[in-house]
Amino acid sequence: MKRHLFAFSALLLALLLLCTGCGLRELTAGTTAGGSDAAQPPDALATAAPETVPTTEAATANPKTEKLIALTFDDGPNAATTNRILDALEQNGAKATFFVCGYCLGEKGAEVVKRQIALGCEIGNHTKDHKTLTKLSASAIATQVSYVNDRVKEIAGYDVKLLRAPGGAYKGVLDQVDMPFIQWSIDTNDWRWKDEAHKDRTEAERSAKLEEIKNFVLDSAEPGAIVLMHDIYDFSADLAGMVIPALIAKGYKLVTVSEMYQRYGEQLKPSTIYFNIDVTPAHADSSEPLPAGTYTVNTKNDPLNLRVEAKPAADVVTKIPKGATVTVTDAVPGWAHVTYDGQTGWVSAKYLKPVV
Q: SS3 sequence, the chain?
C-alpha cells in the first residue's frame, strides 16, 4: 500500500513540475513577443556586448599636455618646391598649413593644392596678388580675399577658413574680413636667405645658414607655436626638410593651425588676430602677485603676448618684444596688468624681470 502511495505522489509531483515548466515557457514567449522589455535568460545577459560610447575629436581633445606645433608656408604653391616640402611632410607623417596666393593657382598650382588637401594639410588665404591690405580700399580687400576662397573651392571643393595678411599687415582691417587672421610666433626669415639673393656664397656657407636657422627653430619651439616659412624657394624647401624631422625628434607633433587650436581647446574667431597658443600655465608656482613697478620682458626668444584678460585663451592685443620695458599697474597670482607703448593688458608674470 505504501509503495502505491509513494508512486502516486511521485507521479503527481512530476505532473506539477511539467505544468509549471510549460507555463514559464509560455510566459517567456509571450513577453518576448510583446516588445523591448522582454525578459532575458541569465546566460544571454552574461554574454551581451558592452555598450560603447562614440568618441569624437572634441572628446579626445588634448588638455594642453601634448607638444603640438604648426608649420606654416606662405606665397605658394610652387610645383617644384612645394612638392618637395610635401614629400618631407608625408615621409614624416606630419601636416602643415599653406597660405596660398591667387596668382599661383593656375593648372600646376591647382594640382599641388589637391595634393596638400589629400595629405591632410590645411589651405589658408594669402590674397590674390599678395598686396598689403592696409593700403587697399574695402572693396579691393574683399576682392583679394574672395578670389582665393572661390578659386580653392573651385579646384577642390575646399572651404578656406584662415587668412594671413601679406607682410603681416593687419592693423585697421580686421573688421573688414570675416576670417581669423593668423600671424606667427617664430619667424625663420627664410626668404632673406634664398639663393637668388646670395649667389656668391659657397655651398659650405649655405649649409651653415640652413643649420643655423634650423637650430633657431628648435631653440624657439614650444607647444602652441606657429612657425613662419615660405614654400617657393629651394633654400626654404631644404630648410623644411631639416626642420620637420628635427622637431619630431624633439617630441613635437606637426599639425595644422586649425587642428592645433582645436586640440588645445581654443576657438578661432573671425576678425581676430592670432600669434600662437600660450600652453604653459602662467606663473603656476607663484601665489604672490607682482608688486607695481617697472619690468623688462625676459622671454627666451619670442615676444610676450599682451592679452585683454588674465587667462591664456584671451585675445591678444599686441606682442611685446624681448627686452622691452613695461609698467606693472596691477597684478593677480601669475598675471600682471601692464602698460606698454600706450596699450594696456595682461601678461604672464613669469616672463617679467624687475628693473633694478
A: CHHHHHHHHHHHHHHHHHHHHHHHHHHHHHHHHHCCCCCCCHHHHHHCCCCCCCCCCCCCCCCCCCCEEEEEEECCCCHHHHHHHHHHHHHCCCCCEEEECHHHCCHHHHHHHHHHHHCCCEEEECCCCCCCHHHCCHHHHHHHHHHHHHHHHHHHCCCCCCECCHHHCCCCCHHHCCCCEECCCEECCHHHHCHHHCCCCCHHHHHHHHHHHHHHHHHHCCCCCEEEEECCCHHHHHHHHHHHHHHHHCCCEECCHHHHHHHCCCCCCCCCEECCCCCCCCCCCCCCCCCCEEEEECCCCCCEEEECCCCCCCCEEEEECCCCEEEEEEEECCEEEEEECCEEEEEEHHHEEECC
Query: Which residues are paired to 344 by β-bridges?
Result: 339
Candidates 75, 126, 190, 230; catalytic one: 230
Q: Is 230 a residue of the active site?
A: yes
* Structural domain harbouring 176: 68-274
CATH code: domain of residue 215: 3.20.20.370
121 inside domain? yes
Is residue 31, in this structure, part of any structural domain at all?
Answer: no
Summarize pLDDT for 184-229 with one digit per residue, the tens: 999 999 999 999 999 999 999 999 999 999 999 999 999 999 999 9
pLDDT at 102: 98
Q: What is the CA radius of gyration of the chain?
A: 32
Both 225 and 310 in a single domain? no
Omega before 54 cis (within 30°)? no
Q: 201 and 106, same structural domain?
A: yes
Q: How many structural domains compose the chain? A: 2
Choosing from 74, 190, 238, 302, the catalytic residue is 74
238 is catalytic: no
Question: Do 202 and 350 lie in a common domain?
Answer: no
Percent with pLDDT over 90 in the chain: 71
